[in-house]
Amino acid sequence: MTNAFFSDLLASISERGRTLLRRGGSSDAKQDASELIELCEALLSGRGEASGTAMAREVLDRYLHLDEAGRLSFFETLARNYGPDREKLAEAIEAWRAQPSDDDASDLHFASEPRRQELIRRLNRAPGGTSALVAMRADLLRLQDGHKDLGALDRDVAHLLGSWFNRGFLVLRKIDWSTPANILEQIIRYEAVHEIRDWNDLRRRIDPADRRCYAFFHPALVDEPLIFVEVALTESIPSAIAPLLAADRQPVPIERARTAVFYSISNTQRGLGGISFGSFLIKQVAEELQRELPKLENFVTLSPVPGFMQWLKQASDLPVTDDERALLAHLDNPDWTGNAELAAQLRSVLEPLAAYYFLKARTPKGRLIDSVARFHLGNGARLERIDWLGDLSPKGLRESAGIMVNYLYRLDEIEKNHEAYANEGEVVASSAVKKLLKSEGRRLLDMRLS
Fold first, then answer.
1. Domain with 13 in it: what CATH number?
2. Whether residue 129 is found in the same domain as residue 105
C-alpha cells in the first residue's frame, strides 16, 4: 500500500511537471531522434526534481514513438557523444600520474564515467522508468548486430541494471493456482523450454502437491516475474521429460519424494540478458525445498542440450569414421526413433559423442559450446548423467537428437565445483559420464590403428 501511494504521488508530480514543460510537438506524433537528444540534454542540465521527473517520463514516452531507424540513431548518438568528458578525464589522469593518492583515484574514477550513465540514472527516476529502461535495452540488444559501436553503450546500461537488479533487491515468490491471473499468463507466455499449451497444462505443472514453481520479482516490476523455475518432486532421478509432463500421470505422494527436479528455467525479460540471477534462484529454491521437505536427497535438472545437433553437423574435426558419419545422416529423418535397430546403432555412437561434446569440445575461444551446460556448470552443478531419448518432441529431436542431461546440485559441493569450472575450466562429471568418454577414446584409438 505504501509503495502504491508513493508511486501514485510520483506519477502525479510527473504529470503536473509535464504540463509545465510546454515543449513543442506531441508525444503521439512521429518523433525524430534529434528532438529526443535535445530533451536528454535538457534533462542532464536540469536540477529541479519535479521537472526532471517529468522530463524523464517525456523522454521515455517519446522514445516509444521512434521507428526502428530513429531508435538506432538515438542509440548511436548516446554511444558517440555521451561518453566521458575528455578534458576532465585528461586532467584527472595527469593528477594521478603526478602524485597518486586515494583522492586522485576517486577523481579519476568519476571523471571516467560516461555522461550517458547519469542520463540513464535520471531516466530511471520517472514513474515506470526501470521497466521502460529494461525494454529499451531489449531494443539495444536487438540492434547491436552489425553495430559494434553500440557495445560501450550496452556495457553502461548493463552495468546500471546489474546494480539495480542485484540479488539483494530480488524477492522469491511461490507461484501456484492462487497467484493472480496476470502473472500466470506470463508464466504461460514466457515458458521457453517446454511449451505450456493451455490453462489446464499450466495447472498440471503448478497445482498438484508434487509440483512447484518459483519466481524472482523486483520491487520496480511488481507483477512481472524476472525468471522462474518449474520443479517436479519425484522418487528418483528422471531420464525423460514426457512422463513428468504427461496429462494422465499419477502424482507422487510427498512422503515418498526424494528428488527435486528443476526441469524448466525461463527468463522473461530480454532486456536483462547477461545479468545473471538464475544461479541464486536455483540455490534459494533448493534451500526452500529442503526446509519444507527434509527427506529430499537429490536436487537435479532435466536439461535440454540445444547445441548438440548443430555441433554434429558443423564440427570439422568430428571424431567419427566414414561409416559412422553415414549413420548420423539418418538423424535428418525424424522417424529414426521408430526403428529399434537403427536407434541402437545411433546410441552406440551418439552417447560417447555427447560425453566428448561436454568434456572436450570447445568454441574457438575455449568455452563450452552448450549454453545450458555453461549455466549449470558455472553455477556449481555436476554433469551427472546423459539421458538417451530423454526428449522425443520435434524440438528435442531437432536440437539434440533427443538427448537430455541431468545436472546434479549438491549444496555442500557447489562452491568447489564452481571454482573448478571458473578457474580451471574443469567440467565436474560423474564416473558414468567419464566412462562414456573413455569408450570414445578407445574408439578413436581403433580409428587411428585401422
1. 1.20.140.90
2. yes
> Which of 114, 146, 164 is the last residue before a domain boundary?
164
Compute the radius of gyration of the chain from its Cα atoms: 26
Which three cell numbers, joined as nine digits, stand for 50? 519535479
d(CA 240, CA 402): 9
Same domain, 290 and 386: no
Domain harbouring 293, CATH code:
3.40.630.180
- Regarding whether 219 and 319 lie in a shared domain, the answer is no
Which has more confidence, 29 or 334? Answer: 334
Q: What residues are labeled active site?
A: 303, 376
Residue linked to cell 505443472: 205
Collapsing DSSP to helix, strand or coil, 384 comes out as strand
Range of lowest pLDDT (23-32, 248-257, 431-440) = 23-32
What's the rounded Cα separation, in Å, for the pair 139 and 163?
20
- H or E stretch including 217? strand 211-217
A 10 A CB-CB count for 427 gives: 18
213-262 confidence digits (pLDDT tens): 999 999 999 899 999 999 999 999 999 999 999 999 999 999 999 999 99
pLDDT of residue 96: 83
What range does the domain containing 262 cover? 168-301
The Cα 265–Cα 382 span in angstroms is 17
pTM: 0.87
> Which residues, in sequence order, are CB contacts of 128 under 8 Å at separation 6+?
57, 60
Contacts of 210 (CB under 8 A, 6+ apart): 232, 233, 234, 251, 252, 253, 254, 257
Whether residue 313 sits in one domain with residue 297: no
Count of domains for the chain: 3
Same domain, yes or no, for 158 and 175? Answer: no
In the chain, the N- to C-terminal Cα span, in Å, equals 76
Q: Where a domain ends, among 269, 301, 333?
A: 301
Task: Tell me the C-alpha distance between 159 and 274, whole Å.
Answer: 10
In a shared domain, residues 259 and 132: no
Both 203 and 287 in one domain: the answer is yes
What is the pLDDT of the chain when averaged over all its residues?
A: 90
Cell numbers given for 381: 552443478
How many of the other CB atoms lie within 10 Å of CB of 274? 12
Residues 339 and 246 in one domain: no
Residues 6+ apart with CB under 8 A from 395: none
pLDDT (tens digit, 9 = 90+) per residue, 45-86?
A: 987 777 899 999 999 999 999 999 999 999 999 999 999 988
CATH of the domain at 350: 3.40.630.150
**Cβ-contact 346, 328 below 8 angstroms:** yes
Q: What is the dihedral of CA 9, 11, 17, 22, to 10 degrees?
A: -160
| Pairing assessment for the beta strands 298-301 and 259-267 based on DSSP bridges | parallel
